[in-house]
């Protein structure tokens, strides 16, 4: 049996596993309470590690949030890169991907509320890169005549993202308008059918 | 000079003015920190009243939030009722109304994050009434052939609301996609032009 007092950060047996446990706990806490509301104590307790170890790995709560965001962005990158951005099922497919990531949507909302106009966006370079691919796919479809050439491609991307993300992000508004919860199978099926038709209206 | 100890809630000289001051302070605090994060102490201090008086008028923090929401809904009702829901400028006009109400958008976001799937939506009857008028206007336009008849009217309303609200609600995503802040005059002008065109695509 090792003596506890000498077990410092540098003696952790499974540093990668410990890091993952902290990140998973942090994702849950940030998604539930936001960056401002999250407590490092609660994250450490949930991960089953001591707070010193957490600070050793991530330096600060802000550093931990950046790491969570980077990790989720990296996980989502392959799907985003492979996505069809201009075909008739593009919106329905985007809905499938986003409906499967409620914690991601909540992180984006907390970020929006806590983001001040002047502050830098976290992990801006990676995120801008993914969005740039999307914008370029729209521009290529416009050049081919598959999407209307006179629409601003950036505004178009923002609108398509919104068409899918908005009902999932505002469950209370979705319930007021449609009578259904946006996570219910009924809503998702109804919305999928609508998005297929809606997306086609823009390309006819 | 009156003795402070005998000045109870029933002796307030301008009850309506005091109520307004509390509601204005509460709107600021809820919009900045959400319902969970808002502190009744801070609201009382901002309004310049004592906490007992606040509880006398509104009973609880939840009661105060309901009153703020009811008040904002009542203020917005005349504009919403008069709005053109189906004409070519409908989206641009909706943007003008929503861009002027950033505190309202933040309240909706906090409500979304703090709303659990099973809980009732605050002031649901009033809100559903306003939305129902909108849905009926869309259905009438569909019957007249001014909007495509095969689109689900509720999903259509949800989408049009999202097309305008989404960029304003997620400033960081708007900046990543367009390079602009959604509250900047440049963004609002660019978005307005896009929304006019986008809305027309659905009606041609």
What does this structure look like?
Two copies of one chain form a homodimer. Chain A contains ten helices and no strands. Chain A is mostly helical and 204 residues long. Chain A folds into two domains: 9-74, Arc Repressor Mutant, subunit A, CATH 1.10.10; 83-204, Orthogonal Bundle (Tetracycline Repressor, domain 2), CATH 1.10.357.10. In chain A, α4 (61-82) runs parallel beside α7. The longest helix of chain A has 23 residues, at 15-37. Chain A is globular, with a radius of gyration of 21 Å. Chains A and B meet through α1, α6, α7, α8 and α9 of A and α1, α6, α7, α8 and α9 of B.
Radius of gyration of chain A: 21 Å
Tally of structural domains of chain A: 2
The largest chain-to-chain contact, stated as pair and per-chain residue counts, equals: A-B, 55 and 55 residues
Can you name the CATH architecture of the largest domain in chain A? Orthogonal Bundle
Number of E-state strands of chain A: 0
Contiguous helical run count of chain A: 10
> Which assembly state applies to the chains in this document?
homodimer
How would you name the CATH homologous superfamily of the largest domain in chain A? Tetracycline Repressor, domain 2
| Class computed from helices, strands and strand pairing of chain A | mainly alpha
**Judging from the principal axes of the Cα atoms, what is the shape of chain A?**
globular
First-residue to last-residue Cα separation of chain A: 72 Å
Instruction: Give the class-level CATH name of the largest domain in chain A.
Output: Mainly Alpha
Mean pLDDT of chain A: 89
CATH topology of the largest domain in chain A: Tetracycline Repressor, domain 2
Helix content of chain A: over 70%
Strand % of chain A is under 5%
Major sheet size, sense and barrel closure of chain A: none
